[in-house]
Structure formats: C-alpha cells, structure tokens
Design a protein that fits this description.
Chain lengths: 315, 307
C-alpha cells in the first residue's frame, strides 16, 4: 500500500510541475509578452521597461521559470493590476464560496443519483426505468447555462417562489444566511451530476446483479434491500470514487457557468470576469488552482480506491 | 495469408473467431459495417434520423423559409410568434427560425471540423506514444495528464481571450483541448494491439514503425476512434455554445446558438420565451442525436469506450 501511495504521489508531483510549466508557457505566449499581460494597457514605455527589468523578465527563461516556481511555493500567484489585488488574496476569498456551491451540489447529486441508479437497475426495462433513463439522457445533453435559464424563468420569473440571483455577500457564510437563494444554483449544478451518477450506477449495478455472489446472498435469505445496499452498493459503488475524482474538472467548469449566470461571487465568476477583462494573472492563477485541486482530488480518489480494493494496488 | 484489416473491430472479431490453422479470412466490407453502425441498433437509427432532420433544417431550410438575416429591422423587434414569424423575432428584428438555421450551420460545421481534427491529431499522438512506449510514452502521456487536469471550459476561456476567435480560430482552440481524449483512448488500444500476432507478424516481415502504426494499429482501432469522434462532435457543439453564451465565442455578425441565448437572456424577464426555449431545444436535440449515434456505433461495432 505504501509503495502504491508513494508511486502515485510522485506521479502527481510530476503532473503538478508540468502544470506550472503550462501556465508559465501560456504567460509567455501572450501577445506582447508577459509584461503586456500583467501591466494595465496604457503604461508608458519607460515604465514598462522598468517593470521588465525589476521583475527579471529580461533574464534567461530558465531563471524566470525558477523564480516563478519559487514565488508559487511561497504562495505568490502574481498581482492583478486590473483589480488592484494580489491573485492569492482574490482566490483565498473566493474559493470557500465555490467550495460551498460545488460541495453541496455534489453531495446532493450523490444522495439522489446513486440510489436512483440502483433503483433503475432493479427495475430495468420497466416503464419507470425507461422514464428515468430518458430524463437522464436529456439532462446529459442539456447545456448547463440553458438549464439555469429555464430554472430562473420558471421559478423566479413566472412562479416568483425563488430569487433569480445567488447570495452575493463577500463572505462564504452569506450562502448560509440566505439558503433560499442558493436553491437554483445548487439545483443547476446537481441536476447534471445526478444524470451522470445515476447512468453510471445503473450500468455498474446491472453488471453486479447478474453475478453469483448476489444469487448466493439471496439464496441464503438476505432481503432484496440488504443485497442491494450491503452487497451491490459496495461492489458497484467503489468505482464511483474514481468517477468523482475524474469529474472534478467538469464540476469546476460547471461552476464557471453557474456562478456567472447566478452572479455568485466564487472562483468561477472571477475567472469569467478575468477572461472578459483579459486579466491574465487571475486567469492563470485560477487555472493553477483548479488544476492543483483536480490533481489532488484524483490522487485522493486513487488512494481511497486502493485502500478499499486491494486488487488495484498490485495491478 | 493476408493479415490486413481495414475495418476496425469488425475485423478483429473475425480474427478472434478464425481457426488456428489460419483459414482464409474474409474482410468485411466497409459499406456493410457502415450500414450496421447506422441502422443496426435502435438508438443509432433514432440518432441518424434526428440528425438528417437537423441537417435538412439548417442547410435546406433557408431555401424554403426565406428570411432577412443581413440587416436589422428596427420596426420588427421582439415580435411574438405569428404566421409571419413562426418563432417571433429577436431584439434586432431578425426572424428566430431563420437565425436557428444559420446558427445550426455554424454549430455543425465547427463541431464536425473540431472533432475531426482532434481525432486525427489525437489518434496519431496516442498511437505513437503507445507503440514506441518507454520514456517517449511516459513524457507524451504526462503532457496529456497535465492538460486534462485543467477544466476544459477554463482552458477555452483562456485561449478565447488570447485569440478573439473567428470560425477558423475557434476550431483550432476547440481542437487544442479536444485531442486529449482520443490520444488517451488510442494509446490504450495500441498497447493491447502491439502485442497481437498480426502486428508481430508484420514486424517479422520487416515492416517499419510508421507502416505498422498507420497500416495495422490505427485501422484496427478505427471502431473505437469512430465512436469517440461522434461523441466529440456533441461535446464540441456544447463547448462552442457555452463559450458564445459567455460572450467569448464567435462575435457578431456571425450567428450561433450560444450567442442567440446570450441575446435572449436580456429579454427573458420581459416574457420573450421564444428567444430562449427554441434555441436550447435545438442544442439539446442535436447533441442527443450525436450521443445516440455514438451509442449506436458502440453497439454495432462492438466497442465500449468513452473517455
């Protein structure tokens, strides 16, 4: 087990290093170079040269990269002249809000999607399974921004039961003070995930239900519920751990859309605003952060999986 | 004995069933495989049917249903659906049905082009990594891992804000992200194919690396590739729509579905449902068509894979 963890950890570090190379390269790929990307547009030539020299942008690339890495290790992700704020302070204040949104949605999707998939597997090819499969096909193909607009149109504009805008307080606790305003954003994000989880769970459970150990358990007199939740869920549910790790980039992508549509001030909205304003330090900072979280999530998922299923470690 | 297959997994199955002695192998015809893929499963038939309707609507539609899509009509703005404008007009007085057709044209063109380019690049990349193996494979695949760790939409936002995209640039930007899936998939296929007898035989007969990859490995992974490309079209259509909805995709005067939704949002509160619902339905129907088609191919060609 330890060997596996060390191997996966080393692999993750290499990918993380590659990620810093990617953002560094993109920063240099920008039209006008790094100085043009970081400085506000109307800066005098002399100021620009001074900035280039002061920040070592005239030194060899390898030196620049090492400085960049050193700054990253010290938690220095750059400075946004557009917002007059350091990137790390922006991310530190916005990340908790995104975690509240994405975390709640994923949890809800989990609690609904998994039992739904199991239920569909038991009722396979009955009318209710067909209905659920049809709905998840549609949700799967549905752009999240359109789903968000429908929810706003129906529940906010026509029925007037929910606000069309998410809580916009500066602190992450704003969401807790106004839970009603969180319902539509959370529903948008979780509906798509429910479709993904239930589709996956249905096919995984179907694979398991046909196997001998299920028949043995049933023959020994275990009730259907016990077989489903104790036996099938354990075996079919384990790959869900890695599915969760793998779907992190999609969840973050969904957060960009959802936060933008509902004007929820998390990292998604920050990266959208940065893209519109061409505020590259923020955009690359969020790229690094999302990438880091994805790598970390995949690492944790793999270790959890290997812990739960020893076969993984030795293959 | 001929050991050349050009029809993907359909050929592979025949190889599996071939008797030990090596009786003459019949090569399945490409036409038969295509027919099976399109009509061999219910989902495939439905997907193909929807797709034909969508293509006819977008490309033939404008010749039947004539609308003015070049100059704004200030006297015709925000009209609800009527006999004259079947789905009403938008904030600039353009007919919505006509706009749906034009937007569909660009969605399909960009989706196909990006999926096709991404597949070609990804397939070659993955096949080379998998076949050469060793350090080259490790380095090439770590590059894929790095790019996959970044959310696709964020990468698209980043690239779209660097290059204000025209159709051509948008296709390149989408491809820059979409090749990762096929690269990973084909590398996996290659790892299993390179140890198979027919590849070993070709090697013994003196075939070079590029010949083995191009003539033996890639043709036998074709089933997987075709299935993946079909799903890629759907993903690309969704990605363009998302990008344009956020205002970073195609700019005026080009017409596209995401941009139409972006315009429609402003009028939703005023009750202009016809600017939001038909476009969304068009996107969903088109995406479902490609997903059905992909699953039909999966079933008919006997491959099981989706990255």
């Amino acid at each position: 087990m330890l060997g596996y963890v060390v191997r996966r950890l080393a692999q993750s570090l290499v990918i993380l290093l590659g990620l810093t190379l990617l953002t560094f390269w993109l920063l240099h790929l920008l039209p006008g170079g790094m100085a043009a990307a970081i400085l506000p547009p109307r800066v005098s030539h002399a100021d620009k040269q001074a900035f280039i020299h002061a920040n070592g942008l005239d030194r060899p690339l390898i030196d620049q990269y090492l400085t960049y890495l050193k700054n990253l290790l010290h938690g220095d992700l750059g400075y946004s002249y557009h917002l007059n704020q350091s990137v790390e302070s922006l991310l530190a204040s916005d990340l908790p809000k995104s975690i509240v949104l994405v975390g709640t949605s994923t949890l809800i999707a989990f609690l609904i999607g998994i039992p739904l998939g199991l239920f569909q597997a038991v009722r396979r090819n009955h009318w209710d399974d067909h209905v659920a499969t049809g709905v998840s096909y549609v949700l799967y193909a549905m752009p999240d921004f359109w789903l968000a607009l429908i929810l706003i149109d129906v529940f906010a504009l026509r029925l007037h039961v929910l606000p069309p805008i998410a809580p916009s307080g500066a602190s992450w606790t704003a969401a807790l003070h106004d839970p009603k305003a969180m319902i539509l954003p959370v529903a948008t994000l979780s509906l798509v995930s429910i479709a993904v989880f239930s589709r996956y769970m249905r096919s995984a459970a179907l694979d398991n239900l046909g196997q001998d150990y299920i028949r043995t358990a049933r023959a020994k007199g275990a009730s259907l519920n016990r077989v489903l939740f104790r036996h099938t869920l354990r075996n079919a549910g384990m790959p869900i751990i890695s599915l969760l790790g793998l779907s992190l980039p999609d969840l973050f992508g969904g957060a960009i859309i959802t936060e933008t549509v509902f004007n929820y001030p998390g990292i998604g909205l920050a990266s959208f605003s940065a893209a519109i304003a061409r505020d590259y330090p923020v955009l690359l900072g969020t790229t690094l952060l999302f990438g880091f979280l994805t790598i970390l999530g995949n690492l944790l998922a793999d270790i959890a999986y290997a812990y739960a299923d020893p076969r993984v470690r030795y293959s | 004995m001929s050991l050349h297959f050009s029809t993907g997994s359909a050929g592979r199955e025949i190889l599996d069933e071939a008797p030990e002695g090596g009786a003459a192998l019949r090569q399945p015809r490409a036409g038969a495989v295509l027919r099976d893929a399109l009509f061999g499963s219910t989902l495939g038939r439905i997907g193909f049917g929807i797709l034909v309707v969508v293509v006819l609507f977008c490309f033939l539609g404008p010749h039947v249903y004539h609308t003015n899509q070049t100059t704004p009509a200030p006297t015709q703005i925000q009209l609800p659906p009527s006999g004259h404008h079947w789905l009403g007009t938008d904030g600039q007085g353009y007919d919505e049905v006509g706009r749906l057709m034009l937007g569909g044209q660009s969605a399909l063109e960009i989706g196909f082009a990006a999926a096709f380019l991404a597949s070609i690049f990804g397939v070659v990349y993955g096949a080379v990594a998998g076949y050469i193996g060793g350090v080259v494979d490790a380095v090439l695949m770590r590059i894929v891992d790095v790019a996959l760790a970044v959310p696709g939409l964020l990468l698209l936002l980043l690239l779209a804000s660097i290059f204000t995209p025209s159709v051509k640039e948008l296709i390149i930007v989408l491809t820059a992200f979409a090749w990762l899936g096929p690269a990973r998939l084909v590398r996996g296929e290659t790892l299993t194919l390179r140890v198979r007898e027919f590849v070993q035989a070709a090697k013994l007969m003196g075939a070079g690396r590029s010949r083995i990859v191009l003539r033996h490995i890639i043709p036998n992974a074709l089933g997987t590739i075709v299935v993946n490309t079909t799903f890629q079209v759907a993903d690309a259509i969704l990605a363009v729509a998302a990008l344009s909805f956020l205002g970073l995709g195609l700019q005026e005067p080009s017409v596209n579905w995401g941009g139409m939704l972006n315009d429609g949002v402003d009028y939703l509160a005023a009750g202009a449902w016809w600017q939001v619902y038909p476009v969304g339905i068009a996107i969903v129907v088109t995406v479902i068509a490609f997903n059905f088609l992909g699953e039909g191919f999966e079933e008919a060609l006997g491959v099981r894979n989706r990255t």
